[in-house]
Amino acid sequence: MIEDRLSFFAALYKVHENSDLGMWLLYLTIVALCIIVFKLGFAKKLPILKSIIIYVFLFMGCTMLTFLGVFLPIAEGLVVAAVILIIYKIRLHQEKKQQRASAE
After folding, report:
1. Of 48, 81, 82, 100, which is most buried with the most CB atoms under 10 A?
2. Within 13 Å of residue 4, how many CA atoms lie on the same side as its CB?
C-alpha cells in the first residue's frame, strides 16, 4: 500500500488522505527546517536585498524538496541536520565562554 511507503512527516500529515492540507503542512515543515538549518549553518550577515533573493530561492527549492519528501526522508534529514547544528552552536558558545573566563 502507498501508506507504507510514505516518509514519517508525510504519514504524520496524512498526505495520502488529504493531499492538499498534507502537502501544505509538509511544505511548511520543510521550509521551516530549511530556514533553521540555513541560519544555524550557513547564514552570514547580508544586505536585505541579498537576503530576500536567498530566501526566494530557498522557498522555490523547498517546493521540489516537498515533492521528494513524500516518499524520501527529506524532512527527517533536515531535523537531524538541525539537531547537529544546534549541538555544535551550543558547544561553540560554551567554548567561547570558557575562553573568555580563562582570559580574565
Report:
1. 82
2. 1
